User: Which sequence fits this backbone?
């Protein structure tokens, strides 16, 4: 027996300890019930008969189940062998890279019922040592004990197989999660009586309670039953078990985010694929969207399950995105590999070397969860700068340029544009045109370049042509003629985070 374990055992009240072992609790469950915590759980544990031989077998009990192989409380979970190996296999199958991990544990609801049963028994037999009505106030939870018992084993297996460096430990804040799900075939039938008992409670469904069904629901049920009522419906101490729980181990990584800005030099590439109810419009001849041109390079690098593209606003397909580019983020789900900044630079170079050259990116970097808040904030606050080619129904004059450039912080009223009425509700939205600047076009009397800066959400095309008077004032009304927009570029999306 390891010294630490022996020391911990001998420090415990011997009569309840002896009783716990004799009714079939494993030695670690016995420790849980006697509020032992910490490192001692990871020691190699002697079988109950060996412990009883050490502390004295006592007498006064009709039966001794201490030699039964499967713990009657944790359903054999804390006695599991090969947990490190099972985790290793799951990780090798998935091919994850990671530098630390968190451990998530799921146990069958029946273990809660069995804990309660043993608690009822102990309160009767050892009222001085077990006073509380609710075992959760005193005992160490099974999930916590699983982490103490198997965490060090998993760590050792991962270090030995070079998944982790020495000194790396479990970290509950890690973005890589190893999950241990323990299942027992009989779990749902064992907790059935709870659902029968609370049949009058409209919040609970009648019928079988699923194994693993909200452990919180079982906890609530147990909390609502007195110990006496419980003991009338379930044997105390808990009955023996023939088969232990089965373990299913899996792993996953939290979403990671790659942020950057994109530029779009084409008037026939959309920001994202055109779809109607999930069906992609067009066939293979349709050009890839900016989202796909970027995602198709970055996504394979991470060996992930999938990705989502999010941009700070959007431009129409026929509008180029120039200048500073538009901030975007790629949400990469369950990435297998970790990325380094120099690899992101290579990916940036790969996108920018695409032979078509219609879409480019800059400033690729990995970001944390906080990027969502920044994107949303930026969406609401951002100002955007545009350049438009404008046509007037009469020759352009210097006075027109002066009129427009003198209009600072111009408030306009925009009714929902005709072209988007099918998807946006009909409203009047006040918007601000912060400034305008005009540039003459060589050899063309009726055309000029209009540079302007607007509040987020302004429909710029409609501000130029007026949208049948639905946007007012507009360039035409300001200059007292008709105005049309020939083409439009976004030249700057002001946002601080990139
Ligand atoms: Zn146990």
Assistant:
């Amino acid at each position: 027996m390891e010294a630490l374990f022996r020391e911990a055992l001998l420090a415990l009240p011997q009569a309840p300890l002896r009783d716990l072992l004799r009714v079939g609790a494993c030695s670690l469950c016995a420790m849980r019930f006697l509020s032992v915590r910490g490192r001692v759980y990871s020691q190699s544990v002697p079988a109950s008969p060996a412990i009883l031989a050490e502390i004295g077998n006592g007498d006064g009990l009709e039966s001794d189940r201490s030699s039964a192989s499967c713990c009657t409380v944790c359903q054999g979970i804390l006695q599991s062998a090969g947990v490190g190996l099972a985790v290793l296999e799951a990780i090798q199958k998935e091919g994850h890279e990671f530098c630390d991990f968190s451990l998530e544990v799921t146990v069958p609801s029946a273990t809660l019922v069995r804990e309660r049963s043993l608690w009822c028994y102990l309160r009767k037999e050892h009222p001085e040592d077990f006073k509380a009505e609710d075992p959760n106030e005193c005992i160490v939870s099974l999930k916590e004990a699983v982490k103490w018992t198997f965490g060090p084993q998993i760590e050792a297996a991962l270090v030995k197989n070079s998944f982790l460096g020495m000194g790396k430990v479990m970290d509950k804040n890690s973005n890589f999660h190893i999950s241990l799900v323990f299942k027992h075939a009989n779990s749902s039938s064992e907790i059935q009586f709870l659902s029968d008992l609370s049949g009058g409670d409209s919040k609970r469904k009648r019928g079988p309670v699923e194994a693993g069904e909200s452990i919180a629901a079982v906890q609530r049920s147990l909390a609502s039953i007195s110990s006496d009522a419980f003991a009338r419906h379930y044997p105390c101490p808990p009955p023996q078990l023939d088969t232990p729980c089965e373990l299913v181990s899996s792993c996953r990584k939290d979403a990671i985010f790659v942020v950057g800005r994109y530029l779009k030099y084409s008037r026939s590439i959309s920001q994202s694929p055109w779809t109607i109810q999930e069906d992609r419009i067009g066939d293979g001849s349709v050009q890839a969207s900016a989202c796909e041109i970027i995602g198709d390079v970055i996504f394979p690098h991470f060996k992930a399950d999938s990705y989502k593209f999010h941009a700070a606003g959007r431009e129409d397909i026929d509008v180029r995105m120039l200048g500073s580019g538009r901030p975007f983020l790629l949400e990469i789900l369950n990435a297998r590999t970790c990325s380094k900044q120099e690899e992101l630079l290579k990916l940036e170079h790969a996108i920018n070397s695409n032979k078509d050259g219609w879409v480019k990116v800059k400033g690729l970097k990995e970001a944390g969860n906080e990027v969502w808040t920044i994107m949303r904030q930026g969406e609401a606050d951002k100002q955007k700068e545009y350049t438009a080619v404008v046509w007037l129904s009469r020759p352009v004059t210097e006075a027109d340029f002066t009129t427009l450039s003198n209009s600072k912080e111009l408030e306009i009223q925009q009714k929902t544009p005709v072209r988007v009425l099918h998807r946006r509700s009909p409203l009047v939205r006040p918007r601000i045109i912060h400034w305008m600047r005009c540039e003459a076009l060589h050899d063309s009397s009726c055309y000029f370049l209009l540079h302007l800066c607007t509040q987020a959400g302004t429909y710029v095309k409609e501000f130029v042509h007026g949208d049948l008077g639905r946007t007012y004032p507009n360039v035409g009304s300001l200059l007292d003629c008709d105005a049309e927009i020939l083409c439009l570029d976004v030249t700057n999306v002001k946002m601080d985070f990139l």
Summary: The domain at 382-493 is CATH 3.30.70.3190 (Alpha-Beta Plaits). Residues 200-212 have pLDDT under 50 and may be disordered. The pocket of zinc ion is lined by residues 25-26, 28-29, 71, 73-74, 78 (CB under 6 Å).
